[in-house]
Structures are given as structure tokens and as C-alpha cells.
Specification:
Number of helices: 6
Number of strands: 8
Distance between the termini: 27 Å
Oligomer: single chain
Radius of gyration: 19 Å
Strand order of the largest sheet: 3-4-8-7
Order of helices and strands: HHEEHHEEEEHEEH
Helix content: 25-40%
Shape: globular
Structural class: alpha+beta
Largest sheet: 4 strands, antiparallel
Strand content: 5-15%
């Protein structure tokens, strides 16, 4: 059990490595992040697949294929947080990236996506994207969710426009993404179990602007529950998330 007066920056690391002062990469955290970093991993409860679906408040297709997409539950994306030790590593890695590459965005574009600065803009859309205009990678620092859930990020060189009145995706763009997810993922992983009450195994979402960690390159998230990992290797071109490399 951790001492009651132990500072948040000493949690989830061996006692012999406890720093006397807060590391620079953990300075100026929000009260919420300080509390998360200062939580023992064993006290953290990962979200289950049903809980993840509830957080996302996913728009899903009804049984009638001609029906409109409808909101099933409240969108509560700010409830997604990382396991405390992963959050600590996330802050440390981002600080290193900013020092070595100038910004997280530059690192992602050049090192993860392998796109040049001028390549991250295109007039293509999700309805028929060229292979070079879209890339599927692991989320490098996934949230604290059931470890059977694979969290992917779909990066695009083209815009994913929001409705200025709602700050959410336009209906047309939401439909394009839904169709893309259907074509790309749902042949291998069921999106919805129409004949039962069990939730489907594919969901997607786009972060609110306030929650985005990378603003200049468009992307949306796809989560797959317990998929065939050979399929994941195929769609990500054998990608490995940074959290497994560090």
C-alpha cells in the first residue's frame, strides 16, 4: 500500500527510482491527470467492451439497411483514460518526442505515417480513398480498456468535416466513415449481431476537437473486440504500437 503522503510522480515505479522532485514531464499536469498518475495500477479498473460502447455513444446502423444512423447512447469520450503507468510513460515519451522532433504532430507525420509535410492534405474522401491517402496504425498509447480490444487509428490526408452548429461530423461524413469501416473491417469482424442481444465487435469514433492530441492531421478511431490478429497485421501492414517498443 502506498504511503498516504507519497507524491503522485512516485507511483508505479520501484522505490529505488523515486525522484526527489517531480520530473519535468510530469510538471503542470491537470488535477485530473495528477490523480490518475498518482493511482496504483492495481487499483485501476479497465473498461469492459460494453462500457467502451457506452462511452462512445456509437451511431450504429439499425436492422433496416435503409434506415438513418441513430445515436444509441450518450457520447462521453472524456471518460477514456490510460492505465496510470501507461499515462506516465505517455507523458515521458511525448516530452522526448517534442525535444527531438519539435512537435508530436511532426513526429507522427514523418516517422509514423511516413508522409511528407505537403502530403497530409488531399481532396480524396472516405468514399473511395486511394491507398496512399489513408493509413491504419495502432493507437500508440491505448486507453485503459479490456486488453482483448484492439485500438486502431485511421489517418487520412483528406478532411473529415464537422457541422459548425454541432461540432460533430456532418451526416454525410459520418455515413462515409461508416461505409468505410463496413468495407474495411466488418468483413472480418462482425459489426453488429442482429440476431442476438450481444454487442457487435467493431465501433468507431472521432474525438471532439478539445480531446484531440494531434489536430493538424485528420484521423478517427476504430476499436475491434477480440479480432483475428492476422487480420490486424494485414490492415496495419504489421504495425507495432510505440507503447510496446519503449
Amino acid at each position: 500500500m502506498a504511503p498516504a503522503d507519497m507524491p503522485y510522480w512516485c507511483y508505479n515505479i520501484p522505490e529505488e527510482h523515486w525522484p526527489a522532485e517531480c520530473p519535468d514531464f510530469l510538471l503542470n499536469l491537470s488535477e485530473r491527470d495528477q490523480k490518475l498518475v498518482g493511482t496504483r495500477d492495481q487499483d485501476y479498473e479497465r473498461l469492459t467492451w460494453p462500457q467502451v460502447r457506452k462511452v462512445i455513444g456509437m451511431y450504429i446502423q439499425t436492422v433496416d439497411p435503409g434506415a438513418q444512423l441513430t445515436r444509441q447512447e450518450d457520447n462521453q469520450l472524456d471518460q477514456f483514460v490510460r492505465v496510470p503507468s501507461d499515462l506516465r510513460r505517455y507523458f515521458e515519451y511525448n516530452a522526448m518526442v517534442k525535444t527531438e522532433h519539435g512537435s508530436v504532430m511532426d513526429f507522427v507525420v514523418k516517422e509514423r505515417l511516413k508522409w511528407g509535410n505537403q502530403e497530409a492534405h488531399s481532396t480524396v474522401s472516405c468514399s473511395d480513398p486511394a491507398t496512399s491517402d489513408i493509413k491504419i496504425l495502432y493507437n500508440d498509447w491505448p486507453y485503459g480498456i479490456d486488453e482483448r480490444i484492439v485500438h486502431l487509428v485511421v489517418w487520412t490526408k483528406f478532411g473529415l468535416p464537422d457541422d459548425p452548429e454541432t461540432n460533430e461530423l456532418t451526416s454525410a461524413m459520418r455515413q462515409e466513415i461508416d461505409d468505410y469501416v463496413e468495407r474495411t473491417f466488418c468483413q472480418a469482424v462482425p459489426k453488429q449481431n442482429i440476431d442476438s442481444n450481444r454487442p457487435g465487435k467493431v465501433i468507431w469514433f472521432k474525438n471532439w476537437k478539445a480531446l484531440k492530441s494531434i489536430h493538424s492531421v485528420e484521423h478517427f478511431h476504430v476499436m475491434l473486440y477480440d479480432p483475428d490478429l492476422d487480420f490486424v497485421k494485414e490492415v496495419t501492414n504489421n504495425d507495432v504500437p510505440l507503447s510496446r517498443k519503449t
